[in-house]
Known about the structure:
The strands form two sheets. This protein has a two-stranded antiparallel ribbon with strand order 1-2. Strands 3-4 form a two-stranded antiparallel ribbon. About 50% of the residues lie in helices and about 10% in strands. The protein folds into two domains: about 5-80, no CATH class; about 80-113, Wheat Germ Agglutinin (Isolectin 2), domain 1, CATH 3.30.60. It has helices spanning about 5-10, 20-35, 40-60, 65-80, and strands spanning about 85, 90-95, 100, 105. Helix 1 packs across helix 2 (about 20-35) and helix 3 runs antiparallel to helix 4.
Amino acid sequence: MWTPLRVWYYTKFVKNEAWPSDVREYVVRRGLKRIDRSNSSPEQQEEIAIKEISAALQDDELSPELMADLLEDGLKRLKNLPVKHCTACGVSILAHDAIITDGKPYCKNCLPR
């Protein structure tokens, strides 16, 4: 109930101190709700997903519920990215990373010369 007030206090007056875990968790969850998936490019979606997954795996102070939510959301974002297959080797590559030559997608290793 008082968490939004505490967030305001920590962001306005106590900027240099470490935030309590419940305040940090509230800010992270509120930030996750604000990320609009429909207006982001695939490159931005990939970057957001990687940051969510790395934050969940590297931060020891997160609650297990928040860690699970970050991992779940990051993996959902990666799952929704468009994928193409390299014409030469057949490996799956993200559509925005594919190099299109003569209308066919190639990975960075198989680019025809």
